[in-house]
Write a structure and sequence with these properties.
With 493 residues, the protein is an alpha+beta fold. The chain folds into three domains: 125 residues; 212 residues, endopeptidase domain like (from Nostoc punctiforme) (endopeptidase fold (from Nostoc punctiforme)); 98 residues, no CATH class. It is 53% helix and 12% strand.
Length: 493
């Protein structure tokens, strides 16, 4: 009997010890002036009011064509000149973009033409940015307003009039020049057709996962974005495509094109080193060698996931580092505009998951690198609806984080969580995956689970409220409405 009592007492003592939390790490303060804020609530309200009026009065083809012509005029101006980030023509183009989006959302006959114009506008700002100082605030904000803003405008149009035929968006002039120009250096890199687009070895696949933490990664930046994951594509001489990427559960790993696409993704974009890049002109096989390096490293060694997001340490890699590390071997520095995470609330939340570096390489920010061009982007209407709800929930939750709300979990879960971590370490030593990812603490894993459960619960409520809104008003709520709905759901949950 004494043996049993002693055993029970020992177990209780062990559980008590395992339930003692570690002291919280102090995080460096960020620059609260850096995060971008649209600060245009009155503009969004006015746009929705115009949309409602135009929708009620019926489709006016002449009005649609007039708005599209005004937009095309601005695209021609910004595309032909050599403009600074502060040039007033950008403001005019942005306003005309939003005006046309409002009109086309109410009258879908101009949908395809609007998307083509928005795509040309995006290509124009990327071309102009080659001459800008991307580290400057003015350049970064202009790129963000034009690239993120144009994507948001296109997706409001697609939300109001979902059309699966417009799920794949490409820049026709860019694709034509890439594929048909004589002596184009990209002809020398192996390529293959994937999902309707020719992928070259060294292309960067930027995607948005379908998990709550994916939404947090996408939105958790001074410039909230749409993407949460980066992979580098390797194509061999036979046309076989392999994606090299970092997963929190496995570290750096490889996947066939089929496996990569089968993993849940709410959106996908292909980026490529621009064809006139001086280093590519001098060495056409540079992207392929970068991809080959990433593939070789993934297959010959175990590279753990980098939860700290330290892009300067190549011994461990998070997803963005897989791409930047590979290109760094060839002398190309990606993310010419480094990502920053400044708000105290967001730092506290990311720090609770193990992040220690808040000047880093965020997946969404890769799009703003002038060295890269967008080859294609896919949007599925159903996935887009899920993406918007997830983003709205995260935006509303992060407002609470800035108000001082912390991520937590029930105290009694810590002891079994630490036991699960010990079991995971044992499995990791044999090259297997445990319930707690390698490199993640038990407490971080528990916060992750608690965050996921709360996000999913709020997202379900927001989805129901959005459906009720659509039934009552006759149209899906625009994004700014979704955020308002999410704010209410977060406060009640």
């Amino acid at each position: 009997m004494k043996v049993v009592r002693r055993a029970v007492a020992a177990i209780l003592i062990l559980l008590i010890i395992l339930s003692i939390p570690l002291p919280s790490r102090s995080l460096p303060a960020g620059d609260e002036s850096l995060p971008f804020v649209w600060n245009q609530d009155s503009v969004w309200v006015a746009m929705e009011a115009r949309f409602r009026t135009q929708r009620m009065t019926g489709c006016d083809a002449d009005a649609v064509n007039t708005e599209l012509a005004r937009l095309d005029s601005s695209v021609a101006v910004v595309g032909a000149g050599s403009l600074s980030p502060d040039d007033a023509h950008w403001e005019v183009a942005e306003q005309r973009l939003f005006d046309a989006a409002t009109r086309v959302a109410a009258c879908p006959i101009g949908e395809a033409a609007f998307i083509r114009s928005a795509t040309r506008l995006r290509a124009a700002v990327k071309r102009q940015s080659i001459e800008w100082d991307i580290a400057s605030v003015s350049a970064r904000r202009r790129l963000y307003r034009m690239l993120y803003g144009s994507r948001a405008a296109v997706e409001e149009v697609l939300t109001q009039n979902p059309d699966s035929s417009l799920a794949l968006v490409t820049d026709p002039s860019l694709v034509a020049s890439l594929e048909s120009a004589e002596r184009n250096p990209l002809w020398l890199t192996p390529s293959a057709i994937v999902h309707g687009v020719r992928i070259h070895s060294g292309d960067l696949l930027v995607s948005r996962g379908g998990y709550p933490t994916s939404a947090l990664i996408a939105r958790g930046s001074d410039y909230p974005g749409n993407f949460s994951h980066v992979a580098i594509a390797h194509v061999d001489s036979s046309g076989s495509v392999t994606a090299v990427e970092a997963h929190i559960e496995r570290g750096v790993a490889t996947a066939s094109a089929e496996e990569y696409l089968a993993d849940k993704k709410l959106r996908l974009m292909v980026l490529r080193v621009r064809p006139d890049h001086p280093m590519l002109q001098a060495d056409p096989l540079l992207p392929h060698r970068a991809a080959s390096y990433a593939l070789h490293r993934a297959t010959v060694e175990h590279v753990p996931y980098d939860f700290e997001m330290d892009y300067t340490d190549p011994s461990r890699l998070f997803c963005s580092e897989v791409a930047s590390d590979a290109y760094r071997q060839e002398g190309v520095t990606l993310w010419t505009g480094i990502s920053t995470i400044s708000s105290a609330g967001l730092r506290n939340w990311l720090g609770a998951f193990g992040v220690t570096h808040f000047k880093t390489q965020e997946p969404s920010d890769l799009e703003y690198d002038p060295q890269l061009v967008v080859v294609a982007e896919w949007r599925d209407p159903d996935a887009l609806a899920e993406d918007r709800i997830d983003n709205a929930v995260v935006d509303a939750m992060l407002e609470r984080a800035d108000a001082g709300e912390r991520l937590g979990f029930p105290w009694y879960q810590l002891a079994p969580g630490r036991l699960a971590k010990a079991y995971s370490l044992l499995l990791n030593s044999f090259g297997r995956i445990g319930p707690v990812p390698e490199g993640m603490s038990a407490a971080a894993a528990l916060r992750n689970r608690a965050y996921t459960e709360r996000h999913d619960g709020i997202a379900e409520r927001v989805g129901e409220a959005a459906s009720n809104f659509a039934s009552a008003e006759g149209y899906p709520p625009p994004y700014w409405r979704l955020v308002d709905i999410a704010r209410g759901s977060v406060a009640e949950y």
